[in-house]
Amino acid sequence: MRSLFTTASIGVGAGLAASFVMDRFQDVAAPAFGMDGGNDDPATVKAADTLSKAVEGRPVTQKHRDAAGSAMHYALGAAIGGGYALAVRQWPDLARGWGVPTGLTTMLLLDDVLVPAAGWGPWPEAEVPGNAYGLASHLVFGVALEGVRRAGEALPG
Length: 157
Prior knowledge:
mainly alpha
């Protein structure tokens, strides 16, 4: 059996890859779902502002907002991936459904609870395009996470 470190490392890599796949999906799918991005900062940038205020006492500068938002997105994906891989090691049944339950859980916990509770975005409403876009994005994340995790676990070593 692989070490905990190796399992976590595979998960972190899978989380980074899944975050990348999710980003690319959103680039392509946003117009189809009628998502134009709006004028408001995304939740990842608002989260970066919160972290920056806590560490430096000021929000992220305008010049670095996009990079800070991306860093938050990928850091969260890496953390989710590492935790997911360790959880699947302990409870293999969590990998059933090829990441679909994980994507759904991620959407519900992050987009529908954490983001609004932290003040980084609105509470969910019964509007189909935005909810469908969020669901599709997180299902893509979950499936990519599980696919890359399985591929990593299949490597010799």
